[in-house]
Write a structure and sequence with these properties.
Helix content: 10-25%
Number of helices: 16
CATH superfamily of the largest domain: Glycosidases
Strand order of the largest sheet: 26-27-28-29-30-31-32-37
Shape: globular
Radius of gyration: 33 Å
CATH architecture of the largest domain: Alpha-Beta Barrel
Largest sheet: 8 strands, parallel, barrel
CATH topology of the largest domain: TIM Barrel
Strand content: 25-35%
Distance between the termini: 44 Å
Length: about 1050
């Protein structure tokens, strides 16, 4: 069933229905097992407790924010061995100390009573529910999103290992936990991983009790000042229990590369790492088949190749690699959309001991070639691809850091529509599922791992653990992600301070570069620079020159020149001269700032300017808003126009990654009092800013669009200059205000927008007609809107899966009587839901809105609000979401009355549905009846063909006169009920006589309608008495009806003549 979207019937009430699709799911979230290998989801049934003070005396290591450290139990030495599998030099691996200093902590014991703890499912971000911190003296400020990320949290869950698992290895796989994760099983400290963005594995086997409940406990410790953006808090990605034979494919133990790639053939090289945890050497057979992969159903398709089977002997407690090659004929190549297709394959690797299959391991991959060219830029499969990328932080807006597949997919879908073809995972490893999406959707990925190295950016950031952990984190990161065809390059640093430390910084950069090359020699690597110069040792260590803002210049000219801070002239040519063979791109561009739908006057005459609070500065430090004319930037940034011009003048530049694709939580430059950023092309709720259409015109030049800004509802600006800008790929445009030309202009060289800076505001219609190569291109119109009169709700998808995690993102638009979004409407909307779903969060994209995200009340921001609805696991059926808004009903009534007066009508009926929302059955039934009621009034059998003909007449139909005019939600005449077609007369009794209603009350209502049709609306209590009658037993009602008809109504009404009203006095009993 699809969403059904209807105009408001109840003064701002908007209701839609959502059906849920069932999906196959096994008990306890078990993923169907491959032979010898089983992977189970551990996402459900956790107990959770958070403390903002220290609930125990444990700490990973000494840290600036931990008071009384001398009394703490430091567990670093017990955690470090968890990194050993990713430390190349065996002499540098860590030995676990004897003993267990944490074994007496009550939270790790199976006997501890956690019944009062919160029950949660993973992925989980404890901070996102808020509340937001406000003011200056708070533990978490704007940089980290003003949300309560700090604290020590404990997660507890029972796991059961069955007797048939005896002899297997049982691993805990954690995709991400923020941060300083430490894990206990049955009171024993297993290990941990301090970096919150890494995926990691721990071996639970030595501590398990077969056939019994085993107590798993995970401790997280999130310090303040640990990040420059919102990190989230909790086990915010998926967690798995993996069961394997003692001889198995190692963690991330396959590596597939392609070479000699063409449309005719490609050579695949395969490395398989076989791990033997048995006490003796094992003779192992290794075989791998290659199949096409269908991303639509997630299944492998036809077999296309087979690697030669290999036989090896693996020493006890060792890992050994197996190499093989095969040629694929007529390969289906992977490449970015739209010019190419993201085709995928899957390699199925099987391990044998004797004739028994002991492990099956599947690897998804793509066949493609990448060339990094200093003059041409990036080539994929030999074809030039301009990098049209964006930077993306890991949060999902109102959902926080807790990963959700649909939310991430929605982000990529909106970016794809923009014309973006690449993302940079700023500034940390992403969820593994994000790369799966990028593979399937054809995005290029610059995969990044670190934001800082040894030198800090904040007090408690990654620099505290860099020296101990950087190798293990870097190697595990690459092994996890290197089979993804979407990953085209690695980034091992972002604006690190070491770029300016001469030889020392260059040496460390070279060390990290070499580690990357050891793990993946097929891709180039880089680190982003914002201060390094071409002659620096740091730059020389990089394969790709990645510049942040330096290409356009930083604080170097015009309105930026007088700003304090680092200054850099446009530096693309300098790097190109120094490194002519190295590919150059901008890993961060723009840092433009804006708030969706907010415009401030006057507007700067510059084509790029830093935000300021002065006239023309585009900023309002009181309202915490930035003008959306899309000319204003951070003081180190540049407008999109300036970036485009600079890159066009340096054709060797491979492209850009805009800062940023979406707004994100934290880092709210220029106003720290806000909660989220202003940088995004798309706001935090997923609503497109004006800037979206500027980039779309650049990145999709064949798309016929013309976007006008600002909106045209400015009652206070009549007679004042109100500049108009248009974003379009056209080369010429003419603007009209109320059909009067405001001038026809052409784009000059290095111009990327049309500007009419002297337009004087008058209400009405603002239109643009554009041309390209002298031919009409695209037209667009904006109008002055009326008062807010309704809520219109639009869902991104019409059906979702009943898996407990799938989402629908529903936009609530405040519209006027013409159906146009009221661009300055900020009405408070109350959302509610019934049926098989629940409201997870609401938002509106306003960086200054401090309403907690789980709140079901949300102020619309410049006409829009968002509600996010999640399915319930296994609950099929409908979800009904409603929205009511303040101050909308009055405008709706006024508008209807004005229209009736204009059309010379004496009466107007404004239909309201009265529904008991507490009854899901009644609500569902009412919704199903609402949409078709008045949809086709001109149809001959409009009444009789309606399914509710079998339910009895509605009162509206029965008391209507011979002719009724119906209006649409745009105050236009939508049709008539004409007596020649549906004669509204007592003759309808002959139809009613042949009707058989299923319910007594329906027949009662129909009969009551026959009586009510002859009662004038002057009768006191008219609106109440029908419902009162309905509550009477049917027999009593018949008697009452007969008394009314025969005692008070003209007997001629029983004939077929048209009826007339009579006035009755009726007492309510």
């Amino acid at each position: 069933m699809l969403f059904r979207v209807m105009p408001s019937r109840a003064f701002g009430l908007m209701i839609l229905t959502l059906s849920l699709l069932s999906i196959p799911i096994t008990a306890d979230g078990v993923v169907p097992a491959s032979v010898g290998r089983e992977r189970l989801s551990l996402n459900t049934g956790w107990r959770f407790s958070l403390s903002t003070t220290r609930p125990d005396e444990l700490v990973y290591d000494s840290r600036p924010d931990v008071p009384n450290q001398n009394g703490s139990t430091i567990l670093k030495s017990w955690i470090l061995p968890s990194a050993n599998d990713f430390i190349k030099d065996s002499t540098k691996r860590h030995q676990r100390p004897t003993g267990d200093p944490s074994s007496d902590v009550p939270f790790v014991q199976g006997s501890y009573n956690d019944s009062t703890w919160e029950i949660i499912n993973l992925p989980h971000d404890w901070a996102i529910k808020g509340p937001f911190y406000t003011g200056d003296n708070t533990p978490v400020k704007g940089g980290m999103g003003r949300l309560p990320v700090q604290g020590v949290a404990w997660y507890r869950r029972k796991i059961t290992v069955h007797p048939e698992d005896e002899g297997k290895l049982i691993y805990l796989d954690v995709d991400g936990a923020m941060s300083y994760a430490m894990v206990w099983l049955n009171g024993n400290l297993v290990g941990g991983w301090p970096y919150g963005y890494s995926s990691f594995r721990l071996n639970l086997t030595p501590y398990l009790k077969s056939g019994e409940d085993n107590q798993l406990a995970i401790r997280l410790d999130n310090p303040v000042d640990s990040s420059r953006w919102y990190p989230g808090g909790g086990i915010y990605r998926n967690v798995w229990l993996t069961k394997v034979d003692k001889v198995h494919v190692a963690q991330w133990g396959t590596y597939i590369t392609s070479k000699e790639v063409s449309s005719e053939s490609a050579v695949l090289d395969l490395i398989v790492q076989v791990e033997n945890n048995a006490p003796t050497s094992q003779n192992v057979g290794v075989a791998t088949d290659v199949h096409l992969f269908d991303p639509g159903n997630g299944q492998k398709g036809d077999k296309v190749a087979e690697f030669a089977r290999k036989a090896i002997s693996v020493t006890a407690n060792q890992t050994q690699s197996v190499n093989a090659s095969v040629t694929i004929q007529n390969p289906q190549l992977w490449g970015p959309l739209p010019a190419m297709q993201p085709n995928l394959y899957v390699a199925s690797t099987r391990l044998y001991v004797g004739n028994q299959t002991i492990d099956t391991y599947e690897t998804r991959f793509g066949i493609r070639s990448i060339t990094y060219d200093g003059a041409k830029g990036l080539l994929v499969n030999g074809e030039h691809v301009r990098v049209q990328g964006v930077n993306q932080h890991h949060d999902l807006g109102a959902l926080g850091a807790a990963f959700n597949l649909r939310a991430a997919e929605r982000q990529l879908e909106i970016l794809r529509d923009l014309g973006s073809n690449a993302i940079r995972t700023s500034h940390n490893p992403p969820a593994p599922e994000l790369l799966d999406l990028a593979d399937r959707m054809g995005f290029l990925v610059l995969d990044e791992v670190f934001d800082c190295w040894e030198r800090q950016k904040t007090t408690n950031d990654f620099h505290l653990i860099f020296s101990d952990w950087h190798e293990a984190i870097l190697r595990s990161f690459i092994r996890r992600d290197r089979n993804h065809p979407s990953v085209i390059a690695w980034s091992f640093g972002n604006e690190v301070s070491e770029q300016s430390t001469g030889t020392a910084g260059g040496t460390l950069a070279r060390e990290l570069h070499d580690t990357v090359r050891e793990e993946d020699p097929t891709r180039q690597s880089t680190a982003s620079m914002n201060t390094a110069k071409p002659d620096s040792p740091f730059a020389q260590a990089l394969d790709i020159i990645s510049l942040n803002y330096q290409g356009e210049g930083i604080r170097d000219s015009g309105p930026y020149a007088g700003l304090p801070g680092t200054k850099t002239p446009p530096i693309y040519p300098d790097f190109h001269r120094k490194f002519p063979d190295k590919m150059i791109w901008s890993s961060e561009t723009a840092a433009a700032l804006s708030t969706r739908g907010t415009y401030m006057f006057p507007v700067t005459d510059e084509y790029s300017a830093p935000v300021a609070n002065s006239a023309g500065g585009g900023g309002d430090s009181t309202a915490l808003q930035v003008s959306a004319y899309e000319l204003y930037t951070a003081e180190f940034g540049a407008s999109p126009d300036k970036v485009f011009a600079t890159q066009d003048n340096n054709s060797f530049v491979a492209g850009e990654f805009v800062w940023s694709g979406w707004d994100y939580l934290g880092e709210p430059t220029p106003y720290d009092a806000a909660r989220s950023s202003y940088f995004g092309i798309i706001d935090l709720a997923g609503f497109k800013k004006d800037r979206y259409f500027l980039y779309q015109a650049r990145w999709r030049p064949d798309l016929k669009t013309a976007h006008i800004l600002p909106h045209w509802t400015w009652p206070e600006r009549v007679g004042q200059v109100t500049p108009v800008h248009v974003f379009s790929a056209a080369d010429e445009a003419e603007l009209f205000l109320n059909d009067k030309s405001q001038g026809r202009v052409k784009k000059g060289a290095s111009n990327y927008r049309f500007r009419w800076d002297k337009v004087v505001y008058q209400p009405g219609k603002l239109s643009v007609v554009t041309y390209k190569n002298g031919e009409p291109w695209a037209n667009s119109t904006v109008r002055t809107t009326g008062e807010a009169s309704q809520i219109r709700m639009v869902a991104d998808r019409t059906s979702i899966s009943a898996d407990g995690s799938d989402l629908s993102f529903i936009t609530a638009e405040i519209i006027d009587s013409n159906g146009d979004v009221v661009p300055r409407a900020n009405n408070t909307i109350s959302f509610s839901v019934s049926g098989s779903g629940e409201i997870v969060a609401t938002d509106n994209g306003n960086p200054a809105d401090m309403t907690s995200f789980p709140s079901t009340k949300r102020g619309a921001f410049n006409g829009l609000a968002l509600v996010i609805v999640r399915s319930k696991t296994g609950a099929l059926g409908q979800v009904i979401v409603s929205a009511t808004a303040t101050d909308v009903a009055a405008a709706q009534i006024r508008g209807a009355c004005k229209q009736a007066e204009k059309d010379g009508l004496e009466y107007v009926w404004i239909d309201t549905y009265c529904i008991d929302k507490s009854s899901s059955a009644e609500l569902s039934e009412a919704i199903n009846s609402m949409l078709p009621d008045d949809t086709d009034p001109l149809k001959d059998d409009a009444f009789k063909s309606h399914e509710w003909f079998e339910r009895g007449w509605t009162l509206q139909e029965l008391i209507a006169p011979r002719e009724v005019i119906f209006y649409t939600d745009r105050s236009n005449i939508g049709g008539y009920h004409i007596h020649q077609k549906d004669r509204i007369e007592l003759g309808r009794k002959s139809w009613a006589a042949r009707r058989r209603t299923a319910r007594i009350e329906d027949r009662s209502t129909s009969d009551k309608g026959d009586v009510v049709a002859h009662i004038l609306d002057e009768v006191q209590g008219f609106e109440e008495w029908p419902s009162a009658l309905m509550s009477q037993p049917f027999g009593e009602y018949v008697v009452l009806k007969d008394e009314i008809v025969f005692a008070h109504i003209d007997k001629s009404l029983l004939n077929n003549s048209y009826y007339s009203f009579v006035k009755l006095d009726i007492e309510r009993k």
